[in-house]
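Appendix B, Record 12. Input sequence as logged:
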Amino acid sequence: MRIFVPKETAPGERRVAVVPETAKKLVALGAEVAVETGIGASIHRGDGEYETAGAQIIADRVAGLHEADAVLRLRKPPTDEVPHLRKNCVHIGFLDPFNERELTERLAAANVSAISMEMIPRTTVAQKMDALSSQRSLAGYLAVILAAEELDRIFPMMITPAGTVQPARVFVIGVGVAGLQAIATAKRLGARVEAFDTRPLVEEQVRSLGARFVKVDLGETGQTEQGYATALTEEQLAAQREVMGKHCAISDVVITTAQVFGQKAPLIVTTKMVEQMRPGSVIVDLAVEAGGNVECAALEKVVEVNGVRVFGYANMPSRAATPASEMYSNNLGNFVEHLWNKERNAMVIDPADELLRGCLITNGGKVVNETIKGHYQL
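Logged structural output:
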């Protein structure tokens, strides 16, 4: 089976889908691996390292796509590359299928077995393949580092002959993977940390990291099978914002991470709430690519409101491209290994496989994922 790994072409993307160590692992499985020339340049990994790992280096991207039985990448493919994928090719990467119906249907029409890495079920078996969690963990860490750099005060308490410097107050909204990492990082830097989530069951996790859990009586709430919070009603959102506003007003840093799987991110922090914060405070909206948790946040911009700066940077994991690439590459390698059939010496797509049922989007010329079919109302 021939696997091709093309370079990422999205503007500003520095991550790499496969690092040399994973290429070596794939070759050891029995795969013939080819990578595009210069694939690792953004993380300082040369073509020679891939060759040493057993991969072939090719300059012709289109030929690489034509010849591949499987294509591994990080970002979704440009639509003009879909015709270059051979029939029955396996394509694995982040596909954003909820928002990319045209691309999804083109992959189906091309008879490509397309697997979406963000749709991998959050089960014990799939933990080592959960690329969404690995990337969001880095995003949570980087959000805190960005805030610490941009805040006009320090995070830890300092007792000096010149007086005592009080610790910065950090408020994390949304206690998923990114939120938990943000809490842990802010605590390590010495901040006083509070956190909120609509799911009361995460309180123990917040407290275990040394942070205070903010409680809001929202009535009945829950989470999806994927572990995401379910969408709130407008009444629940209003009650949440009232309490959130009070805690934002006394915080130096607010980090928002709240997302609802397959839907637009909920609006949590209004512009009025931002206006009530102290000048010099910092907000980092990690949900900005999904519509944003902060009303005045703008994608890829820093917006200032009454001296409060709101950061809406996209693709935070790419800011730490080397570990982000290594983590994603490991997730991808583990996933390929899960699909690998030693007798056939190839990846085998079995729609009945429990793990594949969650993340296989197209197969046999059709959109086969039940969640995505329901979203498209097919």
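The two ends are 33 Å apart (CA to CA).
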